[in-house]
C-alpha cells in the first residue's frame, strides 16, 4: 500500500517578538542573534491563545486543502513536547475539528524531530494497519519552558503549529520514498527540560536517599541546552541521515528539489546544504521570521512554501528533524 501528502496547513500566534524586543529583557543584540542564528523575530503564545487552538487551525487548513471530510480522518498524531495537557491533546483536537467519528488520536513526544517521527508513524499506520487519512500535526510552545532571563536559549525559540494530511493510495502513486530515524540517549544531557522535585537543582537531586511519601511536588525545569554540542551533533548527523534516506529511496542528492530542514539555526541549514552540495536556491528557510518552532518548523516551512507557489506538485523534498533526546530523522517525499 502507498501513501501520499494531500494537504498542509499552519498557524502562528499573534504576538511577534523582535530581536530588539529581546534586547530590552536580556543582554543581547539584534546583530548577535541574527549573525549567530539567522533569527530576526519569533511568535509567542499570549492573550489566552492555546497551543491546541493553533494546532486545530493548522489541521483545519490541511484538511481543507486536501478536500477531505473531517469525519474521514481516522488517525490524528500530535507531535508535541509542550502540549497544553501532559496527558495529550489529540482527542481534544479531534473534537475541535468537529469530528463525529471518534478517530484514534494521540501525542508523540520527540522534540524537534517530532514531525518526521510522526510522518513515518503515519505512513506505517497506513501501510501496515489500513488507516486512510492521517493528520500529522507538529505543534510546540517552547516559550513556556524557556528561562526568559537566559540569553543563550530564550533568543532561539518561537511557538507555532503545522500539519499535513497523509492519505492511503495505491503503490504506483506512493509519495514517501525513504526515511531514516535514530536516537542517542548518551547525548540526552545536551538538551533537557527534566521533571524535578520543587527546590531541587536538577532531576537527579530529587529525593536522594529519602523515601518520601506522599511524594513532594514536582515540576519541569527550564530548557537547558549546550548549544555548541547540539550544533555539532546536527551538522554531523543530519547529512548522514539524509544520505541514508536517499539511499533507501534509490535516489541521490541531485534528485532533491527542496531541502526542508528543522529550522534551528541558519548556520546549521547552510552547513547541511553544503555537505549535500545543494545550492542555496533549493533550500527553504523561514527561520528569520519564526525562530526555532521545534516540531512545527518543518510543516510550517512546507506550508508557507506550498502556498506561495515555491514548492510545486510532484517535486521531491528532503526533510530532516533533529533535537532533544537526542533524536533525529529524515524523510524523502513528493509533494
Ligand atoms: N547575546 C549575546 N551574547 C550571547 C548570547 C546572546 N543571546 N548567547 C550567548 N552569548 C555569548 C556567550 O555567553 C559566549 O560568551 P563568552 O565567549 O564570553 O563566553 C558567546 O556569546 C558565545 O556563545 P556560544 O554558546 O559559543 O555561541 P554559539 O555560536 O554556539 O551560538 C547557539 C549559540 C545559537 C545556541 C548555537 O550554539 C546553536 O544554534 N546551537 C544549536 C541549537 C539547536 O539547534 N537546538 C535544536 C534543538 S532544540 C530542541 O530539540 C527543543
UniProtKB/TrEMBL annotation:
Pfam families on file: ACP_syn_III, ACP_syn_III_C
GO molecular function, a single term: 3-oxoacyl-[acyl-carrier-protein] synthase activity
Enzyme class (EC, first level): transferase
Keywords: Fatty acid biosynthesis, Fatty acid metabolism, Lipid biosynthesis, Lipid metabolism, Transferase
GO cellular component, one term: chloroplast
Pathway: Lipid metabolism; fatty acid biosynthesis
Beta-ketoacyl-[acyl-carrier-protein] synthase III N-terminal domain ranges (all copies): 107-185
Residues of the Beta-ketoacyl-[acyl-carrier-protein] synthase III C-terminal domain: 246-335
Annotated catalysed reactions: malonyl-[ACP] + acetyl-CoA + H(+) = 3-oxobutanoyl-[ACP] + CO2 + CoA
Family named by the database record: Belongs to the thiolase-like superfamily. FabH family.
PANTHER family for this protein: 3-OXOACYL-[ACYL-CARRIER-PROTEIN] SYNTHASE, BETA-KETOACYL-[ACYL-CARRIER-PROTEIN] SYNTHASE III, CHLOROPLASTIC
Functional description taken from the UniProt entry: Catalyzes the condensation reaction of fatty acid synthesis by the addition to an acyl acceptor of two carbons from malonyl-ACP. KAS III catalyzes the first condensation reaction which initiates fatty acid synthesis and may therefore play a role in governing the total rate of fatty acid production. Possesses both acetoacetyl-ACP synthase and acetyl transacylase activities.
Listed name of the protein: beta-ketoacyl-[acyl-carrier-protein] synthase III
Originating species: Cicer arietinum
Amino acid at each position: 500500500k502507498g501513501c501520499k501528502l494531500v494537504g498542509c496547513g499552519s498557524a502562528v500566534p499573534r504576538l511577534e517578538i523582535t530581536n530588539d524586543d529581546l534586547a530590552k529583557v536580556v543582554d543581547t543584540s539584534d546583530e548577535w542573534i541574527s549573525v549567530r542564528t539567522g533569527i530576526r523575530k519569533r511568535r509567542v503564545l499570549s492573550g489566552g491563545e492555546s497551543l491546541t487552538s493553533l494546532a486545530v487551525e493548522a489541521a483545519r487548513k490541511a484538511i481543507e486543502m486536501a478536500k477531505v471530510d473531517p469525519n474521514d480522518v481516522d488517525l490524528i498524531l500530535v507531535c508535541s513536547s509542550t502540549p497544553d495537557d501532559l496527558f495529550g491533546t489529540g482527542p481534544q483536537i479531534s473534537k475541535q475539528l468537529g469530528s463525529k467519528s471518534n478517530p484514534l488520536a494521540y501525542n508523540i513526544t520527540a522534540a524537534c524531530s517530532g514531525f518526521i517521527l510522526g510522518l513515518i508513524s503515519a505512513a506505517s499506520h497506513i501501510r501496515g494497519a489500513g488507516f486512510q487519512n492521517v493528520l500529522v500535526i507538529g505543534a510546540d510552545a517552547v516559550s513556556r519552558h524557556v528561562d526568559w532571563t537566559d540569553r543563550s536559549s530564550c533568543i532561539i525559540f518561537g511557538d507555532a503549529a503545522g500539519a499535513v494530511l497523509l492519505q492511503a493510495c495505491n503503490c504506483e502513486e506512493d509519495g514517501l520514498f525513504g526515511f531514516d530515524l535514530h536516537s542517542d540517549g548518551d547525548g540526552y544531557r545536551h538538551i533537557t527540560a527534566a521533571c524535578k522535585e520543587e527546590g531541587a537543582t536538577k532531576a537527579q537531586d530529587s529525593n536522594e536517599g529519602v523515601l518520601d511519601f506522599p511524594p513532594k511536588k514536582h515540576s519541569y525545569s527550564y530548557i537547558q541546552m549546550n548549544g555548541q554540542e547540539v550544533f555539532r551533533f546536527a551538522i554531523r548527523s543530519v547529512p548522514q541521515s539524509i544520505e541514508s534516506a536517499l539511499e533507501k529511496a534509490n535516489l541521490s542528492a541531485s534528485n532533491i528539489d527542496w531541502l526542508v530542514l528543522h529550522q534551528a539555526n541558519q548556520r546549521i541549514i547552510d552547513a547541511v546544504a553544503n555537505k549535500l552540495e545543494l545550492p542555496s536556491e533549493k533550500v527553504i528557510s523561514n527561520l528569520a521570521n519564526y525562530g526555532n518552532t521545534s516540531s512545527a518548523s518543518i510543516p510550517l516551512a512546507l506550508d508557507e512554501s506550498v502556498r506561495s507557489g515555491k514548492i510545486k506538485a510532484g517535486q521531491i523534498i528532503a526533510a530532516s528533524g533533529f533535537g532533544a533526546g537526542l533524536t533525529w530523522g529524515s524523510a524523502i517525499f513528493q509533494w
